[in-house]
């Protein structure tokens, strides 16, 4: 079925375009690109979470090993259940992946007995107990499928014991561990459990602690603590808000049974910054987003969900529509594009004619332009990073704290013309030597990784500058004369003289020759400025940028940030938008009398106040509908309420009630209340 | 040491062992023994033992039954989610797996009694059988007939069986309306300070002398006895503080208790704030002690982490919810309308509104009020997208809002804001919103 699904996807993708071969290639390319992006992000996320997962694994290992120690301190502590409180932040959709990899890692390296439970499947204590038992016993059955008998036996046992309790688990655990310790080690196919294969801990992961009912959790912990001597239990609490929720949920008598250690994962904004850094600010992927689209994605992230997974999904949605044959990128073949571009207007008329008529010429040019674009990206990213390192430690962050903010500015306009850039440069011009050298050093580190020719040249220049900074000796003291004058000043008490000397000092300071450091600093900044001007121009200024940049921000917004109410209102006020029936097409703001009943009722109700008299409404409705039936307005039947109309009206009203626009009210029996306000 | 327990029918040696294991509980043990009588004698049908947490109820029962090798079944009522589990455990420990498997899927009390009688007629009790029910207060929430039946189980099954209920609350709270058989009441009083010291001194570190350990316990009790008398908790503290003391001890001789006391007291007082409240786990505490003194500040307890990062609109939704919960609905006009006119607080007040809303706690509000306030406090125009609504429900799952109306009610759901004033102030500070200006209580 998966194959069929992929095929249908391809059909959808290539639907409605001329060259079938071409579009198939495109489809394959698109998939390859997306697969690469996806794999890269997964690797990235694994790396990001490696640290915290590793520390968790260490924790479980340590706990299971101290349990067996017989020294005094660990014996005194033996009655506590080791618990890891894992604080993951409020981006709940992202947690699944973390827990997935956590339980996989645990199973690989620490213990086969891992059960993760979610709050929604554990409404009562017995459900929780059942899930835990099923998962721990079940996973083990899956892990060593060496003997079929065992599988049947355990499953039968589980079915037989209607009341699952932890003592069942205890018996099962002891039989399991006893068996594995007596079994010949050579026969076991894989023994992933490195330390202490006899008594691996039993780990229970509570994915969303906040959603659990406190009562269930308390009882469960109480029960577990009764068995802690026989069963090496361990808990991992997934916490979305703050660790103090544990104290809110568990009374002291229960939390004293736990030995809680806190693990804080990195914040989702940091996570996003890394994803943007590795996914978007790289020349590896030809697929780029323009500033507006970026803005939409980032604002969804910051304003709505904090979810990195949704952010990546958003990119996926765009990559799909960007690569589809109907997209702009395909329009390269339409020659108009190259010519229309502003940067090419200066070209001579002959050249333009050539473009229009000569296919070969066009192809050569296109190739050249695309290559140019690639180079642009290769140089853009390192220079952007350099500028960010320089500007990110300035007071009040004129160019933004995060790399992505600077990226926005650069995407939108010529950064060197912006106000922020000027303030940043001004601030840089008064920066101290140490700070400047430190940030220049970091720039050198950044540029060293880049292989492009221009960047190598820049690197050499930057290194030279840096060397000059290093060679600078202590600046020759120009302050001498000033200090002497100040000393003179102290002697005199005449007000006029004082003013004069102060003025003199001021002037001399203004005309003061630049120290070697200052001139070198200016030189460096000019160099940086030059780099910025050549490499950080916005993509729109480059021909054929449409090939790489996806710019339809409205599509993205519509796809990712659904507005159900707006759509319902749109459907009700202009049904043509959805029904595509010519007779429904009307001038702005009005509804054709041929529209569906609910649209007419909706339109009429907009004209009412908070309370709507049902009879008036019905009469108005009947009038409109009669007009649609082309009755003679002068006839006596016109606007008369007959049974069918009455029924249709009632249906429309109940539909509106279902959609939440009106509700019945107890204030007046023949009235309904409006739930929205405004209207005509 | 007090006298060894004595009772006819039991071996001296065993009673000796029991005495050793039950320090400071001899009177209770003696009382119990005399109530239980000789093994083959019938005992009183039911006993009720109550006393605070960690006053040795379970321990005394466990040691007595174990050391004297009496047939018994110990059941914790927390564990018995259903009565079936209770019956199963009792039958399992008295008659083995066969009897337990005879229970039907959803057994009634009569099933239990039937199976019990069936088996006890086959192998009648040579000694009194004991059923110990821990945390018996939970029995009040089960079927109404269970507790009265357990109290006179001896009559029902016609066997030499005694039910012992252990609880932290008094019998008066148990007595059903319909009346029941009165069990024998037995109270376990709290340990005194001297008794606590005697008990705690028992689990001394093997490599140190008993005198030294008991003087250490003395110091520890001096600090903690005023705040905590729970034996379990004290034992936990002992084990933690001991390692701390070993670090400090390098300069002090074992016998110099006075100097030891001076050295350790400030540390113990500090521990009172973190370890006693379990802000810091025992493992972390130990690591902390191994670190340098000045780094101690770096370790923060659980409650120190109260900051929660939220998406921008979630913050405003939470602020709006807080305002809706703590402001009377009539005042919304004054806060969120531009031309509200001058409303003096004194005239505006209704009589019952004179008390602070913050003292009364959050009030429920409907969804549309929340959204109306949200749209007027948020500074930009926000489209009513699906994600706004999903944020409300995720705030509910995070327990920052609570849903008051029933889950099934789809139209006009009602919510309550469940965050504290400090929390909302911190949140509104991050978005530059002066919440105090919008709160009716602070007008």
TrEMBL record, chain A:
<feature type="domain" description="Origin recognition complex subunit 3 insertion">
    <location>
        <begin position="336"/>
        <end position="552"/>
    </location>
</feature>
<keyword id="KW-0238">DNA-binding</keyword>
<dbReference type="InterPro" id="IPR040855">
    <property type="entry name" value="ORC_WH_C"/>
</dbReference>
<dbReference type="InterPro" id="IPR045663">
    <property type="entry name" value="ORC3_ins"/>
</dbReference>
<keyword id="KW-0597">Phosphoprotein</keyword>
<dbReference type="GO" id="GO:0003688">
    <property type="term" value="F:DNA replication origin binding"/>
</dbReference>
<dbReference type="GO" id="GO:0031261">
    <property type="term" value="C:DNA replication preinitiation complex"/>
</dbReference>
<dbReference type="GO" id="GO:0005656">
    <property type="term" value="C:nuclear pre-replicative complex"/>
</dbReference>
<dbReference type="Pfam" id="PF18137">
    <property type="entry name" value="WHD_ORC"/>
</dbReference>
<dbReference type="Pfam" id="PF19675">
    <property type="entry name" value="ORC3_ins"/>
</dbReference>
<keyword id="KW-0235">DNA replication</keyword>
<dbReference type="Pfam" id="PF07034">
    <property type="entry name" value="ORC3_N"/>
</dbReference>
<keyword id="KW-0539">Nucleus</keyword>
<dbReference type="GO" id="GO:0006270">
    <property type="term" value="P:DNA replication initiation"/>
</dbReference>
<feature type="domain" description="Origin recognition complex subunit 3 winged helix C-terminal">
    <location>
        <begin position="565"/>
        <end position="677"/>
    </location>
</feature>
<dbReference type="InterPro" id="IPR020795">
    <property type="entry name" value="ORC3"/>
</dbReference>
<dbReference type="GO" id="GO:0005664">
    <property type="term" value="C:nuclear origin of replication recognition complex"/>
</dbReference>
<comment type="function">
    <text>Component of the origin recognition complex (ORC) that binds origins of replication. DNA-binding is ATP-dependent. The specific DNA sequences that define origins of replication have not been identified yet. ORC is required to assemble the pre-replication complex necessary to initiate DNA replication. Binds histone H3 and H4 trimethylation marks H3K9me3, H3K27me3 and H4K20me3.</text>
</comment>
<dbReference type="InterPro" id="IPR045667">
    <property type="entry name" value="ORC3_N"/>
</dbReference>
<comment type="similarity">
    <text>Belongs to the ORC3 family.</text>
</comment>
<feature type="domain" description="Origin recognition complex subunit 3 N-terminal">
    <location>
        <begin position="2"/>
        <end position="316"/>
    </location>
</feature>
<protein>
    <recommendedName>
        <fullName>Origin recognition complex subunit 3</fullName>
    </recommendedName>
</protein>
From TrEMBL, chain B:
<dbReference type="InterPro" id="IPR047088">
    <property type="entry name" value="ORC5_C"/>
</dbReference>
<dbReference type="Pfam" id="PF13191">
    <property type="entry name" value="AAA_16"/>
</dbReference>
<feature type="domain" description="ORC5 lid">
    <location>
        <begin position="213"/>
        <end position="242"/>
    </location>
</feature>
<keyword id="KW-0067">ATP-binding</keyword>
<dbReference type="GO" id="GO:0006270">
    <property type="term" value="P:DNA replication initiation"/>
</dbReference>
<keyword id="KW-0547">Nucleotide-binding</keyword>
<dbReference type="Pfam" id="PF14630">
    <property type="entry name" value="ORC5_C"/>
</dbReference>
<dbReference type="InterPro" id="IPR027417">
    <property type="entry name" value="P-loop_NTPase"/>
</dbReference>
<dbReference type="GO" id="GO:0005664">
    <property type="term" value="C:nuclear origin of replication recognition complex"/>
</dbReference>
<feature type="domain" description="Orc1-like AAA ATPase">
    <location>
        <begin position="21"/>
        <end position="164"/>
    </location>
</feature>
<dbReference type="InterPro" id="IPR041664">
    <property type="entry name" value="AAA_16"/>
</dbReference>
<dbReference type="GO" id="GO:0003688">
    <property type="term" value="F:DNA replication origin binding"/>
</dbReference>
<protein>
    <recommendedName>
        <fullName>Origin recognition complex subunit 5</fullName>
    </recommendedName>
</protein>
<dbReference type="GO" id="GO:0005524">
    <property type="term" value="F:ATP binding"/>
</dbReference>
<comment type="subunit">
    <text>Component of ORC, a complex composed of at least 6 subunits: ORC1, ORC2, ORC3, ORC4, ORC5 and ORC6. ORC is regulated in a cell-cycle dependent manner. It is sequentially assembled at the exit from anaphase of mitosis and disassembled as cells enter S phase.</text>
</comment>
<dbReference type="Pfam" id="PF21639">
    <property type="entry name" value="ORC5_lid"/>
</dbReference>
<feature type="domain" description="Origin recognition complex subunit 5 C-terminal">
    <location>
        <begin position="310"/>
        <end position="439"/>
    </location>
</feature>
<comment type="similarity">
    <text>Belongs to the ORC5 family.</text>
</comment>
<keyword id="KW-0539">Nucleus</keyword>
<comment type="function">
    <text>Component of the origin recognition complex (ORC) that binds origins of replication. DNA-binding is ATP-dependent. The specific DNA sequences that define origins of replication have not been identified yet. ORC is required to assemble the pre-replication complex necessary to initiate DNA replication.</text>
</comment>
<keyword id="KW-0235">DNA replication</keyword>
<dbReference type="InterPro" id="IPR020796">
    <property type="entry name" value="ORC5"/>
</dbReference>
């Amino acid at each position: 079925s998966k194959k069929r699904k992929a095929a249908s996807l391809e059909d959808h993708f290539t639907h409605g375009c001329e060259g079938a071969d071409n579009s198939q290639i495109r489809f394959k390319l698109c998939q390859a690109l997306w697969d690469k992006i996806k794999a890269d992000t997964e690797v990235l996320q694994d790396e990001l979470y490696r640290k915290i997962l590793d520390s968790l694994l260490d924790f479980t290992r340590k706990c299971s090993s101290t349990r067996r120690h017989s020294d005094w301190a660990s014996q005194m502590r033996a009655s506590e259940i080791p618990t890891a409180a894992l604080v993951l932040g409020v981006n709940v959709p992202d947690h699944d992946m973390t827990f997935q990899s956590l339980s996989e890692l645990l199973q690989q390296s620490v213990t086969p007995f891992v059960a993760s439970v979610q709050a929604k499947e554990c409404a009562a204590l017995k459900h929780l107990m059942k899930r835990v038992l099923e998962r721990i016993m079940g996973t083990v059955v899956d892990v060593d499928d060496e003997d079929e008998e065992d599988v049947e036996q355990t499953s039968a046992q589980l079915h037989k014991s209607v009341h699952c309790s932890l003592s069942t688990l205890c018996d099962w655990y002891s039989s399991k561990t006893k068996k594995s310790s007596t079994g010949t080690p050579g026969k076991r196919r894989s023994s992933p459990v490195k330390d202490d294969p006899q008594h691996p801990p039993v780990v229970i992961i509570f994915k969303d602690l906040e959603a659990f009912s406190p009562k269930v959790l308390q009882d469960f912990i109480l029960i577990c603590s009764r068995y802690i001597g026989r069963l090496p239990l361990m808990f991992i609490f997934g916490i979305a808000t703050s660790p103090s929720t544990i104290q809110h949920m568990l009374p002291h008598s229960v939390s004293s049974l736990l030995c809680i250690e806190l693990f804080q994962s990195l914040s989702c904004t940091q996570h996003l910054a890394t994803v943007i850094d590795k996914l978007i600010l790289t020349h590896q992927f030809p697929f780029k987003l323009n500033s507006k689209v970026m803005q939409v994605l980032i604002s969804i992230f910051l304003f709505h969900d904090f979810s990195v997974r949704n952010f990546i999904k958003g990119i996926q949605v765009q990559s799909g529509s960007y690569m589809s044959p109907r997209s702009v990128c395909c329009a390269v073949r339409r020659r108009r594009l190259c010519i229309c571009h502003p940067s090419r207007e200066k070209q001579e008329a002959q050249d333009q004619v050539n473009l229009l008529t000569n296919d070969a010429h066009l192809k050569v040019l296109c190739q050249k332009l695309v290559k140019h674009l690639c180079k642009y990206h290769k140089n853009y990213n390192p220079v952007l990073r350099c500028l960010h390192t320089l500007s990110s430690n300035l007071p009040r962050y004129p160019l933004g704290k995060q790399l992505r903010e600077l990226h926005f500015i650069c995407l939108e306009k010529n950064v060197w013309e912006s106000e922020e850039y000027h303030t940043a440069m001004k601030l840089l011009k008064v920066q101290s030597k140490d700070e400047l050298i430190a940030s220049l050093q970091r720039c050198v580190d950044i540029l060293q990784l880049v292989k492009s020719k221009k960047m190598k040249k820049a690197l050499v220049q930057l290194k030279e500058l840096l060397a000059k900074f290093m060679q600078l000796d202590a600046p020759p003291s120009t302050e001498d004369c000033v200090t002497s004058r100040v000393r003179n000043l102290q002697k005199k008490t005449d007000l006029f003289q004082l003013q004069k000397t102060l003025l003199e000092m001021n002037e001399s300071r203004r005309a003061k020759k630049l120290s070697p450091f200052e001139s070198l600093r200016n030189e460096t900044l000019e160099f940086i400025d030059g780099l910025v001007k050549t490499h950080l121009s916005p993509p729109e200024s480059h021909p054929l940028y449409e090939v790489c940049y996806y710019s339809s921000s409205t599509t993205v917004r519509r796809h990712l940030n659904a507005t159900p109410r707006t759509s319902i209102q749109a459907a009700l006020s202009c049904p043509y938008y959805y029904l595509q029936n010519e007779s429904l097409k009307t001038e702005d703001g009005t509804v054709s009398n041929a529209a569906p009943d609910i649209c007419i009722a909706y339109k009429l109700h907009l004209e009412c106040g908070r309370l709507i008299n049902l009879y008036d409404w019905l009469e108005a409705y009947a009038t409109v509908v009669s007009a649609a039936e082309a009755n003679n307005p002068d006839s006596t039947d016109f606007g008369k309420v007959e049974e069918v109309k009455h029924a249709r009206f009632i249906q429309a009203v109940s539909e509106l009630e279902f959609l939440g626009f009106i509700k019945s009210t107890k204030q007046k029996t023949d009235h309904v209340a409006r739930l929205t306000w405004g209207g005509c | 040491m007090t006298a060894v327990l004595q009772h006819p029918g039991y071996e001296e040696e065993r009673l000796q062992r029991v005495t050793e294991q039950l320090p400071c509980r001899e009177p209770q043990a003696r009382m119990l023994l005399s109530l239980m009588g000789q093994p083959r004698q019938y005992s009183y049908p039911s006993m009720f033992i109550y006393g605070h947490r960690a006053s040795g109820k379970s321990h005394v029962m466990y040691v007595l039954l174990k050391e004297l090798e009496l047939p018994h079944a110990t059941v914790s009522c927390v564990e018995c989610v259903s009565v079936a589990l209770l019956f199963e455990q009792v039958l399992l420990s008295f008659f083995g797996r066969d009897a337990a498997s005879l229970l039907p899927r959803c057994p009634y009390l009569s099933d239990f009694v039937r199976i019990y009688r069936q088996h006890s007629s086959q192998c009648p009790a040579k000694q009194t059988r004991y059923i110990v029910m821990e945390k018996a207060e939970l029995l009040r929430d089960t079927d109404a007939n269970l507790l009265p039946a357990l109290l006179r189980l001896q009559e029902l099954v016609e066997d030499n069986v005694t039910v012992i209920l252990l609880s932290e609350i008094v019998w008066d709270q148990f007595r059903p309306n319909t009346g029941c058989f009165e069990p024998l009441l037995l109270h376990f009083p709290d340990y005194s300070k001297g008794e606590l010291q005697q008990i705690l001194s028992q689990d001394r570190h093997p490599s140190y002398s008993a005198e030294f350990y008991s003087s250490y316990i003395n110091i520890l009790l001096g600090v903690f006895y005023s705040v905590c008398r729970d034996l379990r908790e004290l034992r936990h503290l002992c084990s933690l503080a001991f390692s701390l003391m070993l670090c400090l001890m390098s300069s002090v001789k074992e016998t110099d208790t006075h100097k030891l006391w001076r050295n350790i007291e400030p540390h113990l007082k500090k521990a009172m704030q973190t370890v006693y409240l379990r802000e810091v786990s025992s493992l972390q505490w130990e690591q902390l002690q191994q670190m340098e003194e000045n780094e101690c500040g770096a370790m923060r307890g659980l409650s120190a982490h109260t900051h929660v990062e939220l998406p921008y609109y979630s913050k405003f939704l939470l602020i709006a919810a807080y305002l809706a919960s703590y402001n009377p609905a009539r005042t919304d006009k004054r806060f969120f309308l531009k031309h509200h006119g001058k409303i003096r607080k004194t005239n505006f007040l209704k009589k019952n509104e004179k008390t602070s809303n913050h003292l009364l706690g959050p009030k429920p509000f409907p969804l549309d009020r929340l959204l109306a306030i949200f749209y007027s406090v948020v500074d930009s125009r926000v489209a009513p997208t699906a994600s706004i609504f999903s944020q409300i429900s995720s705030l509910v799952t995070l327990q920052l809002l609570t849903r008051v109306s029933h889950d099934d009610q789809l139209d006009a759901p009602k919510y309550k804001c469940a965050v504290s004033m400090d929390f909302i102030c911190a949140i509104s500070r991050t978005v530059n919103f002066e919440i105090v200006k919008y709160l009716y209580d602070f007008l």
